[in-house]
Design a protein that fits this description.
The protein is built from no helices and 11 strands. By secondary structure, the chain is mainly β.
Length: 123
């Protein structure tokens, strides 16, 4: 059974940092795209960052334009992905979801979702 389990969420003050982790199990995700989405109350789920496989053990990262400069994504091997979030703002408050897709990391391409981890940024 495939599972994506997020960790690292919590309460942080504005300007602070958090590092989210996602551990996948149940199969090997070496050629899968893995990444993060988020959903704030009353809004649609939105893309945050993703890593796509470029061959061998290489992955290419991408960050939503509005988050560049504050968020970074890294792949810790085939089944792990991290999201480093710096200079957090109150508008970053959301449930953050780990995602994995065999064809890509756009929402329609995601095959597996985690259950989410809540990030709350206090101002």
């Amino acid at each position: 059974q495939v599972q994506l389990v997020e960790s690292g969420g919590g309460l942080v003050q504005a300007g602070g940092s958090l590092r989210l982790s996602c551990a996948a199990s149940g199969r090997t995700f070496s050629s899968y795209a893995m990444g993060w989405f988020r959903q704030a109350p009353g809004t649609e789920r939105e893309f945050v960052a993703g890593t796509t496989w470029s061959g061998g053990q290489r992955y290419v990262g991408s960050i939503a334009d509005s988050l560049k400069g504050r968020f970074t994504i890294s792949r810790g091997g085939a089944n792990t992905v991290f999201l480093q979030m710096n200079s957090l703002k109150s508008e970053d408050t959301a449930v953050y979801y780990c995602a994995a897709g065999n064809r890509g990391i756009r929402a329609r391409e995601v095959d597996y979702w985690g259950k989410g981890t809540l990030v709350t940024v206090s101002s």
